[in-house]
Every structure is written in structure tokens, then in C-alpha cells.
């Protein structure tokens, strides 16, 4: 398969780099210092799965400069998806498709609105990976999983199975979900509260799970997301909140979510697309979400200030 990875940060750099290391044809859409580093020095991965230096990497800022692909993995920040989606059609071969790997529950809908429902496969990922510097990706822990599935409850397909096989050959755990929307929401009820509560408390996983008050806040936020999913008709499996808490309990002590890291560092974050989405969707469903109302109110002033400063 030929791949284009849109967004060469922690997630995109790791998955794309492992795919190229396994012999797949891969190109990256990147920008700024990351693009310059990829073009000049290639890509370095440090991961429990592999420590790799790929000295030659195909990368461009404009998707139109790259050859079309069988699969386009979209790994930008969720707030960038609506704009990026409008530029992806030239990257898709006949029969090609895009897969969102963002945190959040609305990325696939944005891609489908721009590309058409039939050209989008549902997706999500679980991994702790980030850029340690331009062209340098760090992955920690054993968690490295991509979940895939046809949307709207459709059965699995040859294209999904082919993508899953390519990922497994690259040492990325790939799971084909019978209900990818439920899988997206189950991941969301872990990552959004973990990121938002972590950002409010400025605390890593160890403190969130050990301090009773912080743990209770985290669980309450998870329960609000679960209630919202079910109110929207998502077939969330029983025990989803308990499993999310178990994930937090297994994380490295210093683990944080990307949203928390962005907020603490004073960068634009996915606050609007994660915590803000919960508040907005809960309001649409006439569902109370007091924990998220607090998290949103506490974090929004800094987010607005950061975005004004960068406007």
C-alpha cells in the first residue's frame, strides 16, 4: 500500500515511520521546523517497538505535491481537521480512503463532509508519543494501537483488513472494530477527561489516580461523557468507565495527555474540540454536564489568550 501521513507529529511520525521502516511506501504532509528536519535529516523514532533512523523521508507542505495514496492517515490536531479535509481529495487514488487518528468524536464527520462518506474509514489510536524535537519522535509505554472500522455500522471490508495487515506488519497493534463509533467514544471518555482534568490540576497520571479528590473528579468527568454517548445513541459497552479508569491506573506515573501538554506549554490545544464539544453536545441533548461546565470555564480563558496572541 501507499500511504500519506497528514501531520508528522508524535502520532503521525510514529505510525508513518514504522510503516516506512516495514517497507511500505510513505510520504508525509508537514510544515515548519518539522518539515525542514524531515527533508534535511529524515526521521528518528525512539520506541519500545523499534529505535529507527530513516535518513530519507518524502515530505511536503502542500498535499498536491505528493503522489496519490491508497490510505491517507490524518494525524493533525482535531481543530485543524476541517481546514485540512478540504485539501485531501487529490491525495486519494481511485478506491483510496482517509482515516482520522485524532482525539475527539467529530473528525470523521469533517472528513466525510469534504471527501464523501465512502472515502472515509473510521479510526482512532492509543499511544503516548510526542516530538522531542524536529524530526525526533519519542514513544513510551507498551500502548501502540490503531482501531479501524467501516462507519455507519457497515461490516468490515477488504480495504480495512488490508490496512490492518499493513499496520500489524509494522509492529503497530491494529484492531478492526465491529462498531467503530462506539470505539471512538470509548476512547474519548478516557482521553478527554484525562486531558482536561490533568490540565486543570497540572498533574500527571500518578497524582490523578492517587489523590482521592482528583480521582473522583476524573471519574465524574468520564461518567458525563459516557452518559452523553448513550444519549446520542452510541452503543457504548457496559463497563466503559471502569475500563477507562483501569487504563489510567496502568499509565506511566508521569504520563499526560497531549491536550494537557499543549495547554501547560501555552500552545493552541484541542480544548474546543474535546471539552468544548462535550459541553456543546450535552447542551444539544439537554443533558446536564456540570463537571465539564467547570472544566471548560476554568480552561477557556488561557485558550482564548493563546489564540489571540497567535492571530
Protein architecture, described:
This protein has 311 residues and is an alpha/beta fold. It contains 12 helices and 10 strands. α6 (180-201) runs parallel beside α10 (258-265). The longest helix has 22 residues, at 180-201. The chain is 47% helix and 21% strand. It folds into 2 domains: 2-178, Rossmann fold (3-Layer(aba) Sandwich), CATH 3.40.50.720; 182-310, N-(1-d-carboxylethyl)-l-norvaline Dehydrogenase, domain 2.
Keywords:
N-(1-d-carboxylethyl)-l-norvaline Dehydrogenase, domain 2; 5-stranded mixed beta sheet; alpha/beta
SSE layout and pairing:
Elements: E1 2-6, H1 10-21, E2 25-29, H2 32-41, E3 43-46, E4 51-54, E5 58-60, E6 69-74, H3 81-85, E7 92-100, H4 107-115, E8 122-133, E9 136-149, H5 158-169, E10 173-176, H6 180-201, H7 205-210, H8 212-231, H9 240-250, H10 258-265, H11 275-284, H12 290-310
Amino acid at each position: 500500500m501507499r500511504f500519506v501521513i497528514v501531520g508528522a507529529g508524535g502520532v503521525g511520525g510514529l505510525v508513518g515511520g514504522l510503516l516506512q521502516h516495514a517497507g511500505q511506501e510513505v510520504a508525509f504532509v508537514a510544515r515548519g521546523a518539522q518539515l525542514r528536519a524531515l527533508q534535511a535529516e529524515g526521521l528518528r523514532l525512539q520506541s519500545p517497538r523499534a529505535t529507527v533512523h530513516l535518513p530519507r523521508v518524502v515530505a511536503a507542505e502542500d498535499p498536491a505535491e505528493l503522489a496519490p495514496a491508497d490510505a491517507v492517515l490524518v494525524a493533525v490536531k482535531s481543530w485543524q481537521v476541517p481546514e485540512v479535509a478540504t485539501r485531501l481529495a487529490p491525495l486519494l487514488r481511485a478506491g483510496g480512503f482517509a482515516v482520522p487518528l485524532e482525539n475527539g468524536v467529530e473528525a470523521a464527520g469533517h472528513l466525510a463532509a469534504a471527501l464523501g462518506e465512502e472515502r472515509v474509514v473510521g479510526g482512532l489510536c492509543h499511544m503516548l508519543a510526542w516530538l522531542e524535537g524536529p524530526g525526533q519522535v519519542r514513544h513510551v509505554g507498551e500502548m501502540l494501537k490503531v482501531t479501524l472500522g467501516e462507519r455507519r455500522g457497515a461490516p468490515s471490508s477488504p480495504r480495512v483488513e488490508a490496512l490492518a495487515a499493513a499496520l500489524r506488519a509494522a509492529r503497530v497493534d491494529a484492531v478492526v472494530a465491529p462498531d467503530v463509533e462506539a470505539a471512538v467514544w470509548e476512547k474519548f471518555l478516557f482521553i478527554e477527561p484525562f486531558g482536561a482534568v490533568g490540565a486543570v490540576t497540572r498533574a500527571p497520571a500518578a497524582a490523578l489516580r492517587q489523590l482521592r479528590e482528583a480521582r473522583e473528579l476524573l471519574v465524574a468527568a468520564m461518567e458525563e461523557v459516557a452518559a452523553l454517548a448513550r444519549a446520542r445513541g452510541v452503543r457504548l459497552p457496559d463497563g466503559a468507565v471502569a475500563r477507562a479508569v483501569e487504563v489510567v491506573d496502568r499509565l506511566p506515573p508521569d504520563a499526560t495527555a497531549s491536550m494537557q501538554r499543549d495547554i501547560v506549554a501555552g500552545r493552541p490545544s484541542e480544548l474546543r474540540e474535546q471539552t468544548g464539544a462535550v459541553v456543546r453536545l450535552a447542551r444539544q441533548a439537554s443533558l446536564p454536564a456540570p463537571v465539564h461546565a467547570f472544566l471548560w470555564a476554568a480552561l477557556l480563558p488561557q485558550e482564548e489568550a493563546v489564540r489571540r496572541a497567535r492571530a
